[in-house]
Write a structure and sequence with these properties.
- This protein has an 8-stranded mixed sheet, with helices on both faces. A 6-stranded mixed sheet has the order 8-7-6-9-11-10, with helices on both faces.
- Helix 3 runs antiparallel to helix 6 (about 165-170).
- The chain is built from 10 helices and 14 strands.
- It is an alpha/beta fold.
- It is globular and about 50 Å long.
- The two termini are about 15 Å apart.
- The chain has helices spanning about 25-35, 45-50, 85-95, 115-120, 125-135, 165-170, 200-210, 230-235, 245-250, 260-270, and strands at about 5, 40, 60-65, 70, 75-80, 100-105, 105-110, 140-145, 155-160, 175-180, 190-195, 220, 235-240, 255.
- The protein has 2 domains: about 5-80 and about 200-270, Rossmann fold (3-Layer(aba) Sandwich), CATH 3.40.50.1000; about 85-195, Hypothetical Protein, Haloacid Dehalogenase-like Hydrolase, Chain: A, domain 2, CATH 3.30.1240.
- A hairpin with a 2-residue loop joins strand 4 and strand 5 (about 75-80).
């Protein structure tokens, strides 16, 4: 019986912020599928941002950090944020100087001055670098002023310091996760706000149950702390060498970095090829 393989994108399948996996990863995915294994994207990106990667043959997706789950053409789960809650969150975050991007199946909308904010930070983790590149390469993030009430699954947040999130956390943390990345010395706190009703791990479990597969036949690949629930759910958890130190400690194995043919080498080691 083939395995179910769940792949994060930024920093795992591709270099952060890009849409092209290394040739070695493309070869590995093709050979794995020929051997009867099924591949699923498992990402914080919304479905609209996934379009460039769908030229590769995936069997489904866990998108928007678990808010949107699909196998083939069948949507298993679609859970947008309530409109009133979204309004409250954005008002509170903006009042405290937090920069936001909101994402849903219909696209992403970002604060107008987010690019300037990012350009003023130093260094950064994979999520910050992804948003730098996404904005500079114009991969579909439209101005927040163009948002017209489309369903939204999550809020990406960036702030100078964690204290700017205090008010919003007080109002929403009972029902929402504030998933923050490690904070190196670059003067920026970044992460995402997602409903406690879903996460990447719950998305993985929805696919496992739909396909009636044993948990032991699942493998997950990730690099940052928003992959934690996925790696805690799958039967075998792999973290990239370029990944978060905290996540590396939680993984069953740390494979080479995405820039060192990590996916191919991992698939080879795990007998998927």
């Amino acid at each position: 019986m083939g395995k179910l393989i769940f792949l994060d994108i930024d920093g795992t399948l591709t270099e952060t912020g890009t849409n092209t996996p290394p040739d070695s990863a493309v070869r590995a995915m093709a050979r794995a599928r020929e051997n009867g294994h099924r591949l699923f994207l498992c990402t914080g990106r919304n479905p609209d941002m996934l379009r460039p990667l769908l030229r590769y043959p995936f069997d489904g997706m866990v998108a928007s950090s678990g808010a949107y789950v699909k196998v083939g053409e069948t949507v298993l789960y679609d859970h947008p944020i309530a409109a009133e809650t979204l309004r409250l969150a954005l008002e509170t975050l903006h009042r405290n100087g937090v920069f936001c991007t909101i994402e849903g199946t219909g696209g992403a909308f970002g604060d107008a001055d987010l690019k300037d904010f990012l350009n003023g930070t130093e260094g950064g983790n994979s999520e910050i670098e992804r948003w730098r590149r996404v904005l500079s390469e114009n991969l579909g993030i439209r101005p927040m002023a163009e948002y017209a009430g489309q369903p939204i699954h999550k809020i990406v947040i960036m702030a100078r310091e964690a204290a700017q999130l205090t008010e919003c956390r007080r109002l929403l943390e009972k029902d929402f996760h504030f998933v923050l990345q490690d904070v190196p010395a670059h003067g920026c706190v970044n992460g995402e706000i997602v409903s406690r009703d879903f996460d990447k791990g719950k998305g993985v479990r929805r696919i496992i149950e739909y396909l009636d597969m044993p948990l032991s036949d699942t493998i997950g690949f990730g690099d940052s702390m928003n992959d934690l629930e996925m790696l805690e759910t799958v039967g075998y958890a792999v973290c990239m060498a370029n990944g978060s130190p905290a996540l590396r400690e939680r993984a069953d194995w740390v494979c080479p970095a995405v820039t060192e043919d990590g996916i191919y080498k991992a698939f080879e080691k795990l007998g998927l090829l």
